Amino acid sequence: MKIAISVFGLLLVMACGSTKIVETNSENIKTTAPEGPEGLKAQMPKETAGFTDAAKIGAIMNFLASDDLKGRDSGSEGIEEAAKYIEEHFSNNKVKPYFESYRDTLSNFKKPSYNIVGLVEGNDPTLKNEYILIGAHYDHIGIIKAENGDAIANGANDNASGTTTVMEIARYFGANKTNKRSLIFALFSAEEKGLLGSRHLAQKLKAADLNLYAMLNFEMTGVPLEGKDYELYITGYEMSNLAEVSNKYAGKKLIGFLPTAKEYNLFQRSDNYDFYKEFAVPSHTFCTFDFTNFDHYHKVGDENDIMNFDHMANMVNKMLPVLEGISNATSQEVQLK
Questions:
Q1: Which residues constitute the domain of residue 24?
Q2: Within a domain: residue 336?
Q3: Phi, psi angles (nearest 5°) of residue 277
Q4: pLDDT digits (tens, 9 = 90+) for 125-164
Q5: Which of 19, 90, 202, 227 could form a disulfide with 118 if both were Cys (CB 3.0 to 4.6 A apart)?
C-alpha cells in the first residue's frame, strides 16, 4: 500500500500486516472447520488443509526477497529475474498465459516493465465467463540509502509475501481446476511508482469489456496479527459483504475490521483501487499489517529473517476454501453495499 501517515509528529509510511501462528503440519490440522459466525459449518477439503507449508512458502520467498534481485525495482535486472521466476511457476503449475504471453507490458511507465498475468479457466460452461482477479504487486524500491552497509531494500513483507501468496493460490487451482468461474492471477509491476501496473491492467481489461466479478488483492501478509480475534483484515471492509462471505466459507472469523485501515483510507492505497474505479465491483486488499507488528516499511530491514512462513502457509491453506467457495457459488454472493 502507498500511504504517508503523521502520528505524533512521526511519519509512518504504510503497507500491510500480521496473524497468529498455527502449525501447518497436516497431521495437526482438522479438516472440518469450526462452526461459522452464522452457525454454518464449512468443510475444509483435505487437500487444502495441508496444501502448502513453510518449506514451500520459504522457497519462493527466499528467491523473491534475495539480495540477488537487488530489491526488484521496476525496470531493473532484478525484477526481470522475478518475472521469469513467476512465469516458470505458472507454467509448471498449469496456469496459462492470459494474453499471448504471461507478460503485460506497462503503457504508463518509461522503463520496460511487465505485469505477469495468468489464467485458470473455469470448469462451468456458463460461469466460466465471469472472472475473479487475484493479485499482488511483485515490485519493490530497489537500492536505497545504506544502513550498516546494507543498501538493498529486499521487500520481503512488501510485497514478496503477497506475491508468494498469489503464486501458491495459483498453484492450487492450476493443479486442481476446481473453480467454476475463471480466475485471473496478476502480479503487478510499478506499484511503488504510484499503482501504475494495476492501473494499466484495469484500464486494459475494462476496454476489452471483461466480465469482472471481483478483484481480490494480497499485500504485506508476511507476519501475523497480534491481539485480534481475526487473522486478516480487508481494506474497504464496509463497502461490500466480502468479509461475511469469506468467513462463511472459512467456517470461522478469518477476516475482520481494522479501524486504522478505514481511518487512513487504505482502500485507495493498493492495487485493488483501480479495479474498483474502472469496474465498480467488489475490490479489496487482504492484509496483516496493522501499524504495530512491522517496523521496516521501505527499509533495508524488510528481509526474510523476520517473516513467518508458518503463518503464511496457514493463511494460504485457510484462504483456499474461501476462494473456492466464492468462485463456485451459483450466484455472485459478494456484493457492494
A1: 3-328
A2: no
A3: -65, -45
A4: 999 999 999 999 999 999 999 999 999 999 999 999 999 9
A5: 90
334 within domain boundaries = no
Q: Encode burial over 59-82: b for 16+ CB neighbours within 10 A, e otherwise.
A: ebbebbbbeebbbbbbbbebbebb
The radius of gyration computed from the CA coordinates of the chain, to the nearest angstrom, equals: 18
C-alpha 10/C-alpha 12 separation (Å) is: 6
In a domain, 8, yes or no: yes
Q: What is the CATH number of the domain that holds 57?
A: 3.40.630.10
Judge residue 175's burial from the number of C-beta atoms within 10 Å of its C-beta, 0-12 exposed, 13-18 middle, 19 or more buried.
Answer: middle
* Strand runs labelled E in the chain: 3-7, 10-14, 32-35, 41-43, 96-97, 103-105, 114-120, 131-137, 143-147, 150-152, 182-188, 212-219, 232-234, 255-256, 283-287
- Residue 256 included in any domain: yes
pLDDT for 98 equals 98
pTM of the predicted protein model: 0.88
Start-to-end C-alpha separation, the chain: 23
Into how many domains does the chain fold? Answer: 1
CA separation (Å) from 108 to 83, 87, 219, 272?
18, 22, 22, 18
Is residue 81 within 8 Å of 68, Cβ to Cβ?
yes
> Which grid coordinates are listed for 194?
504510484
Longest C-alpha distance within the chain, in Å? 57
pLDDT in tens, 246-291: 999 999 999 999 999 999 899 999 999 999 999 999 999 999 999 9
User: Has residue 92 got a pLDDT over 90?
Assistant: yes
